[in-house]
Every structure is written in C-alpha cells, then in structure tokens.
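Observation: inputs received (chain + oxalic acid).
Thought: call the complex predictor directly.
Action: predict_structure
Action Input:
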Amino acid sequence: MTAQAAKSMTAAGSAEANDAAKRYGAVLFFSDFDDPVTWGDALRANIPGLDFRVYPDVGDPADIRHVLAWKPAPGFFEPFRNIAQVINLGAGIDSLVGRDDLPDVPISRLSDPGMIALMRSYVLFSVIRYARNIPEFEQAKRRREWHYIHPRPLHQIKVGVLGLGHLGSAVASGLAAAGFDVRGWDIAAKTIEGVRTYTGPERDAFLSEVEILVNMMPHTPQTEKLIDKAVFDALPRAAKFVNASRGPVVDEPALVEALRSGQIGGATLDVFWVEPLPQDHPFWDMENVLITPHLASITVPEAAARDVAESIRRVSAGGEPLHRADTRRGY
Ligand code: OXD
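Observation:
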C-alpha cells in the first residue's frame, strides 16, 4: 500500500469514527448469558465510535437501529419502532420467530468459526466418549475394577447426524475427518464430502445402522418432536444419542422410556424442553445420561464482531445483513 493510500484509509476510518452514531444509529445489546463489555469492546474495535447501549440503559428508544439479542422476553421489541435489523446472538433463531412485537426487519444469526469449532469439539467429545467406552470405564473405576474392553476401529463405528445445516454439516465432516463412518439425514438433499447422505423418506434406512445418533436439527414447527419413539425404535438396540441443538426436537418422555428399556443405551444432552432442567426431571437420576447445561457452543465475540459490524454497515447502507435467517423456515 502506498503512503497516500494508507493515509486516505486512515482518514476514512477516522471519518467513520467521528460520525458513527449518525451513520449507523445506536446498537442495543441484550443477553443474560453474554458479556456486554467484551461485546462492546469487540464491536468498537471494528467500528470506532459506535453508539453501543446495553439493556436496560436504552436511552431514547427511537435511537435504536440495530438490536443484538439473545432470547429477549415477549414484548421486548415493542418500544423500538426504528429498528432496521435484529442480530441473534447465537445460531438458533427460534426465540425470534412467531413473535408479534417484532417489526418486519431482517433477522440474522451468528456463524463464526469460533462457534463452529466449539460445537464440533462438543460433538466429537460426546461421540468419542461412547466410541471409546469411557462411560463403562467410569463405572468400572467406581467399582475398583480393571475392566478391559477391546477398542473398535473408528471406521467401523457408524455415526448418524440428523440435520445437515451450517453447524450439522461442520459436525458431520469433523466426525468423518476423525475417522468415523458418518451418515447424515436432512429434510432437503445435501452433499458433504466423506459423508453418506440421506433425505426425506430414506430416514429409516439411515437410522437402521446408526450406533450413535447426533441431533443437529433446528427447532421449528416442522421439527418439534421429530425425534420420537419411532426414531428410537428404528435405531439398532442400545444405540447412543447426543442432542446438541434444541430440546423440543426430541419427544422427551419417549427418550426417557427408550433409556429405561435399553433401546437407547446412553444419552449426552446439552439442551432440553425446559432449561434449566427441572430438579425432578427423570434424566437427573439416570446413570446412562450425561447432562451439560446448554453450552455445547457459544458465540466468541472476538470472532463474531467482524461479521456483526459488517451487517451494521450493510443494513445502514440499505443492504442485506450477513447470515440472514429465513423466519418462515425458522433457521
Ligand atoms: C445457539 C445456542 O443457538 O447456543 O447459538 O444454542
């Protein structure tokens, strides 16, 4: 870059910083889980001078043009009549669809490499834990027992991924790269290198050989209770189940029953119909269920802020945000 070009880029940067509030309006942040200070710093590193407000310190609601939110309560959007877009602070947009307080503005989600890497690591851990018989060794240790189980080669272990969207396909290719025999099913036909894919009515053929089933389906009216008794019954006996997407995709009483009967041999569950999982839920007492508190993947502000800043610039200029979601489809 010439000195002249560098100088004019710096000038453009400081012009943006000087009138960021005028150019973009205010950004409102709402989340009970994410740190607003880290997000504010990460966004201002991308747009110096950005007017970043943290709920409930909203100021004049008419200033708010962009909302960055995770699970806002019903009615949250009512005071904000000038918003131009909503950016969901996560992957699943289920808390933003079917609401009557939201004006007709683009809704986008986050899809940063940090979030994908965390999700892939959670599923890889869960699948490897079953593939390498770790739950049996944990139990044997409690009995003070040297309990040898001959390891099976990974390419013989059939893992199925239900849902091959952005995260599901990253998970499926991560499992294939780790050496598993991976199959995937989705409502629409998908192609993923190293993964045998199935669609629509091929679901039972897909399930019939799967030893470890991973749910990566978003929650929409079409996917609610999609994983039910019929799905558990179509798996080989004692198959394992991992849920890293959304609780309501699973018929929970059917899963409890399948775990009790041994049709499902173990489950790793990060998400539930009701979160936090109620104290009296049967999953808590099941030796063969591993529970994690909805953290399979989180957004990494340093990695995601660049995309968010770009969406703020684009939408302010009358364009489309990055990673726009389709609220009719629900993902
Ligand atoms: C998400 C989640 O959707 O963390 O990003 O559940």
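Thought: report the result.
Final Answer: Residues 42 and 302 are 6 Å apart (CA to CA). The pocket of oxalic acid is lined by residues 90-92, 297-298 (CB under 6 Å).
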